[in-house]
Specification:
The structure holds two protein chains of two kinds. Chain A is mainly alpha-helical. Chain A has helices at 7-25, 30-55, 78-101, 107-126, 130-148, 154-185, 190-196, 202-220, 228-235, 238-262, 269-292, 297-317, 321-352, 363-366, 368-382, 388-402, 406-432, 443-461, 464-478, 480-486; strands at 59-62, 73-76. A two-stranded antiparallel ribbon of chain A has the order 1-2. In chain A, helix 3 packs antiparallel against helix 4 (107-126). Chain B is mainly alpha-helical. Helix content of chain B is 73%, strand content 0%. The chains are: A mainly alpha, B mainly alpha.
């Protein structure tokens, strides 16, 4: 029964290759087809989520029936089940939005790349093999490069080029790290790496982990390698921007955290944590400072997204259960909020023809519902109580204090202050400046925005149930012994 | 002997990285990227290499005792395919950029964009 979960990988892949046939039948059927497939994917993901959380056991899928480490396995544990659901849900929302936002041909190519992007992120989260992770990362990034340049304007092409070059360097780094791990441990299976990591030479482990972190930092938008992100966010089609922020980044962050924690028995592990803490802190500072100066709302949201990613990375780098839980919670909240913000900003761009700050003047009069959604999203990400991000920022501060990193608490609070400055500027612009006639707002998109706003407020008022789920997901990441025990390794003992 | 391969692989990676970071022509940067990928592939292959052994292909006289480690070779095959896809995509983007800006110089493109 649980083998049906392999549909999570198989369905988007096979549907992507059916797109040309659909196009032959009718060009107008492509976008509804895309929505349908993502809806089915959401259903399968919801089923896997229910299955994992009711039985409390992860779903393990062994490709071809070979036991790991001989065969490649998928591991859908508490964390993966939650985030695959988020990936599928965000894709579904963006597929619906694409019907309105994408007017440039070739739509069939767009639909294929869209499905492959979803497939790549799902695979990165579900896989239990480090090379398989690399392959899924490349699927994600190659479709992301192509989608970034989809609009074919000069800016989009330049952003795509930047992304390709940084992504190429990153994937090479990642592969060198994998080569070092394989050379010293002789395995590629994550569970077996976790078993054997204690025997690793300290220097090799440190170099391999640092290279892997730098490799994933491109996708995860960690500081020195995130120069592509603002350009790509600005140049990419609006739904794709939201997908980047909602789950492509999250998948890479998850991969980083997973690889980091499975090697936690290596003797030089704490050095790697310190590296990640420094990188994360720099990411927060650079992201927030750059966001302050932006004149384009999409670019501003991109920098804000980078800053949040920095906070998540810092939480993972604390090396405690509380830190991991806080980071997972922040990932969850950030996915909802940024999906909402990019959806609303993209919708404004579709209706008013751009995302420069001036376009947002008087939005409260022109499109009250959209303006209201942006306001809720902005207020939430600043970290005002009774909205969801408040709780994850609070957890992050508590985790930092209990791990004796008082300055991280200061970092989180400082970041919130800077966020308040530029988000309140935007809110002020929308409600108290400019004039305009009220416009008709799309019913479906309005409904989705209302649902996301409701999710933000409900989680903000009753964080308990989500926090329980997140705690389970966090311990799935942190508790490596459990991870190893759950994977039926073939005849190897440490 | 085996350290020679490592040395070669690392130098290829560094040469590629130099080209990516220093060159201003987009095509040269892409060539650098390819050189870097080749270096990584060579590194992977040499990690699985055992001296005086044959290729891991099921044929006359090839037993598990006298072949090299097959896994890195499978990895490199995959990595080569991925590299080809990336290069092809990058070249289409370069064509697009050239038709928009009539130049391949990175600095020029940045200046034209303003």
């Amino acid at each position: 029964m649980s083998q049906y979960a392999s549909l999570l990988i198989a369905l988007p892949l096979i549907s992507a290759f059916f797109v040309p046939i659909i196009k032959r039948i009718s060009r107008d059927a492509i976008m509804p087809y895309l929505s349908l497939i993502t809806l089915i994917q959401t259903g399968v993901a919801a089923w896997a989520f229910k299955e994992v959380y009711t039985t409390g056991k992860p779903i393990i899928i062994m490709a071809g029936g070979f036991k790991p480490p001989v065969g490649i396995n998928l591991y859908i544990g508490h964390f993966a089940a939650l985030f695959i659901l988020i990936v599928a849900l965000a894709s579904f929302i963006m597929a619906v939005f694409s019907r309105k936002a994408i007017s440039i041909e070739p739509k069939d190519k767009y639909a294929m790349l869209f499905l492959l992007l979803m497939l790549g992120a799902t695979g990165m989260i579900a896989t239990g093999d480090i090379f398989n992770l690399f392959v899924f990362m490349e699927i994600t990034s190659i479709s992301a490069y192509a989608l970034t340049g989809y609009n074919k304007t000069g800016e989009a092409s330049e952003a795509s080029m930047k992304y390709i070059i940084l992504g190429g360097i990153g994937s090479s780094f990642f592969l060198i790290g994998v080569a070092l791990l394989y050379g010293s441990l002789g395995t590629l299976n994550l569970a077996q790496i976790a078993q054997l990591a204690g025997n690793m030479n300290a220097t090799v482990a440190q170099a391999a982990l640092a290279l892997i972190i730098f490799g994933l930092a491109v996708e995860a938008e960690i500081f020195p390698l995130n120069a592509w992100a603002p350009d790509a966010y600005q140049g990419a089609p609006h739904p794709i921007t939201a997908m980047f922020s909602a789950f492509v980044v999250k998948a890479a962050l998850y991969a980083m955290a997973r690889i980091l924690y499975i090697t936690s028995s290596a003797s030089s592990w704490s050095n790697v944590l310190r590296l990640l803490i420094v990188l994360g802190t720099l990411t927060v500072i650079v992201g927030e400072m750059s966001a302050l100066r932006q004149k384009n709302v999409k670019r501003m949201l991109a920098y804000s997204s980078i800053a949040q990613v920095g906070l998540i990375a810092v939480g993972f780098a604390l090396g405690t259960q509380a830190g991991v839980n806080a980071s997972v919670f922040h990932m969850f909240n950030h996915a909802i909020v940024k999906a909402l913000l990019f959806l609303a900003a993209g919708y404004v761009a579709v209706e008013l023809g751009g995302t420069e700050l001036e376009k947002f003047e008087g939005l409260g009069r022109k499109m009250p519902l959209t303006a209201f959604s942006i306001t809720v999203g902005a207020v939430s990400i600043i970290g005002i109580p009774l909205f969801n991000v408040f709780w994850s920022k609070l957890r992050l501060i508590l985790a930092a204090l209990s791990a004796n990193y008082a300055w991280i608490a200061a970092l989180v609070l400082g970041a919130s202050v800077v966020e308040a400055v530029y988000y309140i500027r935007l809110i002020h612009l929308m409600w108290f400046k400019g004039e305009g006639e009220k416009m008709e707002e799309n019913f479906v998109l309005g409904g989705i925005m209302v649902l996301l706003v409701a999710a933000i407020i409900i989680i903000g008022v009753y964080p308990g149930p989500v926090w329980n789920i997140v705690q389970k997901a966090g311990s799935d990441l942190f508790n490596v012994a459990n991870y190893v025990k759950n994977v039926p390794l073939l005849g190897v003992s440490p | 002997m085996i350290s020679l391969y490592y040395f070669g692989a690392i130098s290829l990676i560094l040469i590629g990285m130099y080209a990516v970071l220093v060159k201003r022509n987009l095509l040269k940067m892409l060539v650098g990227l390819s050189i870097m990928e080749t270096g990584v592939n060579l590194l992977l292959i040499s990690i699985g290499y055992v001296s005086n052994r044959t290729a891991p292909i099921l044929s006359e006289g090839a037993t598990p005792q006298n072949t090299v480690d097959p896994i890195p070779q499978a990895l490199v095959l995959t990595a080569i395919v991925i590299g080809v896809a990336t290069t092809a995509l990058a070249l289409t983007v370069v064509i697009n950029l050239y038709s928009k800006y009539k130049t391949l110089d990175v600095e020029e493109i940045r200046r034209l964009r303003g």
